Amino acid sequence: MSGRVDIGDYVERAHDKKDCQLSFIVKTKIWAADSANSWYYNANGNMNNNNKNNSNTVRAVSEFHQEGLISLEDVFEAYYDCRKNKRNTANALLFEVDYERNLIQLWRDINARTYSTSRSISFIINKPCKREIFAADFRDRIIHHLIAKRLVPIIEEELITNTFNNRVGKGCLYGIKQLHADIAEVSENYTVDCWVMKIDCKGFFMSLSKDILCDMFDRLIEDKYDGTDKDIIKWLTRVILQDCPTHHCVRKSKLHEWEGLDANKSLFHSGDKFGLPIGNLSSQMAANYYMNEIDHFVASMPGVKYGRFVDDAYLVSKDKQLLLSIVPQLRERLAEINVTLHPKKFYIQHYTKGVAFIGSVIKRERIYISNRIVHNAFNNIGIANAVPDEERAGYAEHFIAQLNSYLGFMQHCSAYAIRRNIARAVDLGWYKYIYFADDFSKVVLKKKHNRREQIKRQLRRKHRNGHTIF
After folding, report:
1. CA distances (Å), 297 to each of 324, 334, 467, in order?
2. pLDDT above 50 for 156
3. In this prediction, what percent of the chain has a pLDDT beyond 90?
């Protein structure tokens, strides 16, 4: 929206966003002045002053959208995007208790350039491999979405087609199928020899130079972004990228859980000038763009098919020597941006030997699931089978979500027998709550145990008994 913003629109939109599901009903006022005074705009479109004896003046609606500044509407839209998958987290609920005031304060902090990042939560995950994760504060996540909403469209125009990570319409499955298609094309439908080279970067996220990243984004915004808030977006992007979450984080995992994690995979060993936290939307966006020049360099080489998922990349060619000749050039270019190839995750082989890529093994005419993913699936089933019977009703939805994530991926691989074995491995007691589709493609929660259906049944009973539902 350009021009003036009607604050009443936010109230109307808040109710349209199904906020009635919250135990606290969304307030129908949005403060249009500092918290020290008492002017507010209500849903009837009236500007009221609860304290008629004060000397405060109402701020014009135009304050909420001025040339060169971030509009309040954009902050609200970033908030709605941010909360889609995080609404039930404690961090999000705490913010949402008084979200209008919080968003307006955030909006003012941005435009006054007094915004600074809040503390993150740091923890260790062990699957699919051991990693250090930083979960940003919900307030900071809103900023990540605000920046992404502006920059992702122009970054998309800069990226090559075959980068798969964190892009709409792409992802793991797209990358797997693209490599399979590239092998078929280069080998002329498996009639001539071709070679596949796999490369990986060592400690990729921790090696990213913040100064190089900031310069890249400054040039991108200056050259490609035409919004009137260009200067603030440049400043805000620098604040996010230059942040050192290790200085203000809370460790949720115990210290001994960091043992065994390579130093090149931890921000605590990267220094203030290098490394981005894994887990942030801004980090995914930045990582994609950081490798953009490298992607264009390799993809433009004649006789080579190339694709990349974060730091995991492949090159396919009929000429083995051509692929080997690219490696020194690639090392040299990567060194310019402080990235190095992993010495133990580099190989080149004939396509008939199979290629491991993003949790799959791609062979001539079939795609197989990797052993690591199969092992993790059965390990999660073992954990679920150990849940006591009296606790399974509350654990069922989580268990189903886990299984369906594996089964959904396996549908696109040659893995029918594995899916069948997964169904057999599930303890018989679980079948009180769930059932498998005939082809073992998904797990479904039985209707009578679905919490949504239980609420509906309760409401119907109250209605039949003459009780007022609302």
Report:
1. 15, 11, 70
2. yes
3. 61
Under a CB-based contact definition with an 8 Å cutoff, are residues 131 and 125 in contact? yes
Question: What is the per-residue pLDDT for 65?
Answer: 58
Beta strands at 131-135 and 305-309: parallel, antiparallel or unpaired: unpaired
**CB of 243 closer than 8 Å to CB of 113:** no
Q: Phi and psi at residue 454, in whole multiples of 5°?
A: -65, -40
Query: Does residue 198 sit in helix, strand or coil?
Result: strand
What's the rounded mean pLDDT across residues 344-373?
A: 90
Residue found under tokens 């002017």: 39
Best CA proximity match to 32, nearest among 13, 6, 53, 14: 6
Give the span between the Cα atoms of 214 and 234, in whole angstroms. 9
Sign of CA dihedral 207, 208, 210, 212: positive
Residue 209 in tokens: 């130079």
What is the pLDDT at residue 393?
A: 85
Has residue 462 got a pLDDT over 60? yes
- Find the DSSP H helices in 71-196: 72-82, 90-96, 99-111, 138-158, 172-186
Q: What is the pLDDT of residue 361?
A: 92
Are 423 and 377 in contact by the 8 Å Cβ rule? The answer is no
- Please classify residue 193 by burial: count the beta carbons closer than 10 Å to its beta carbon, then call 0-12 exposed, 13-18 middle and 19+ buried: middle
- 176-199: per-residue pLDDT in tens? 999 999 999 999 999 999 999 999
Distance CA 299, CA 16 (A): 46
* Residue tagged 């769930």 (tokens): 434
What is the chain's mean pLDDT, rounded? 83
Cα–Cα distance, 145 to 156 (Å, whole number) = 16
Nearest residue to 159 (alpha-carbon basis) of 280, 288, 284: 288
The answer to whether 176 touches 411, Cβ cutoff 8 Å, is no
Which stretch of 4-18, 212-226, 336-350 has the lowest confidence by average pLDDT? 4-18
Q: Residue 406 in contact with residue 414, Cβ under 8 Å?
A: no
Long-range Cβ contacts of 260-265 (<8 Å, 24+ apart): 260/130, 261/124, 261/130, 261/131, 261/132, 262/203, 264/202, 264/203, 264/206, 264/207, 265/130, 265/131, 265/132, 265/203, 265/206
Distances from the Cα of 400 to the Cα of 116, 384, 425, 459, angstroms: 39, 10, 14, 26
Give the C-alpha separation, 459 to 212, whole Å: 58
User: Which residue type sits at 281?
Assistant: L
Return the closest-CA partner of residue 451 out of 385, 401, 400, 397: 397
In the predicted structure, residue 8 carries a pLDDT above the cut 90: no
pLDDT digits (tens, 9 = 90+) for 403-437: 999 999 898 888 999 999 999 999 999 998 999 99
